[in-house]
Amino acid sequence: MRSCLLSLLLPVAAAATACADQGKPIGIVDIDADRNVTSLQVHASTPELDRLARLAFGAHGAYRFVAGGAAYDLNFTQVAPAQVRVEITRGATGLPVYSEVVTGTSARNALLRAADVAVAHTSKLRGFFAGKIAFISDRGNGMEIMTSDLFGGEVVGWPGVSRQIITPRWSPDGRRLIFTSYRNGFPDIYVLDMGTRAPTLFVSVQGTNTGGRYSPDGGRVAMVLSGEGYSEIYVSNAQGKMISRLTRYPAVKAGPCWSPDGTRLVFTSEPGPQLYVMPAAVGATPQRLPTNISRYCAEPDWCRWDANRLAFTMGVGRGFQIAVYDFSTRQATQVSSAPLDAIEPCWLADGRHLLYTARQANQRSLWILDTETRKATRISPSALGQVSQASYWIQ
Q1: What distance in Å separates the CA atoms of residue 5 and residue 21, rounded to the nearest whole number?
Q2: Exposed end of the chain (fewer CB within 10 Å): N or C?
Q3: What's the confidence (pLDDT) of residue 162?
Q4: pTM of the full predicted structure?
Q5: Rounded Cα gap, residues 339 and 19, in angstroms
Q6: What is the torsional sign of CA 360, 297, 10, 345?
Q7: pLDDT more than 70, % of the chain
Q8: Using a CB cutoff of 8 Å and minimum separation of 24, what contacts does 314-321 make?
Q9: Is residue 385's pLDDT more than 60?
Q10: Structural domains of the chain, ranges and CATH numbers in brackets
């Protein structure tokens, strides 16, 4: 049974398009009115902050850089070690739109927070630049959990949890990561405390223990355990106690993910695999999600900021791409067109952009995808090695 479960988990999660450089220089393009893309000019007071601001807005599908006549000019000025002033003016007239001094935990973090302020005042979207990500890095010495800002800066490695690692996921308060590790030779679920830097065993029963994911309020954890035979969906409290079995049918299951209100779960199940949704309660009956787009649908991520949107990995020919299911229309749409595999989607805070892993043979990297314009931008520096399985958190 252990091998059956891993055959469902690992082909997609095992690892992304080879792209030599992160954030290539941004060319001059014009506003795309049909897609509601806003033209910008961006400047910052130091070369480091200027590069970061251009990398951030260059990865955002709602904006394009132009040489002149931009809709908005954005100026970022460092005024203290961890403070940045953002000034927004109308590009054509120079009239002021908004100005604010933003405080962060560092100059880099303050710049990203200030950029989120600029997004809020130049679009109807929520900013996502100041979020943090957790991911798996492999630089040739085994797997390691790492955390960083969205653009691979301020990286922190978390030693002591090596061997094979699967799906680190943030708690809602950003203080913990839950993940599966083979550190003792078997797949068990652990929790990593961000304050103490110590991993603790969360659940270890006979068989495979995978897929741990916190509920939106942080009070429960969904997971997949196979101790009673087939892999089944279980829910526990936040301490790994009071474990309840939710599913009872003979099929391999993986990747449970909570609805934004915490009342339902979506997960992957054979045959197929396909996606199933069920109330997060004992005795509930799973219902297949009518994606009608591929014979292989897995790795669901339910958008916390738009309950109508669910991203997942779909099989296309011999490869994989990202699709989005809309609960309001009951339609699924392929949103990525990566040269090879696009897998492991994770929503960003505006409910429009996704973080995903691009994969080619033994090469993996993290990219941002705009689900509306279909623009994709690599954001993981090559210095981080082979990176995958990202989880996103923002306050």
Answers
A1: 35
A2: C
A3: 62
A4: 0.90
A5: 11
A6: positive
A7: 90
A8: 320/12, 320/296, 320/359
A9: yes
A10: 2-20+129-393 (2.120.10.30), 33-122 (3.30.160.150)
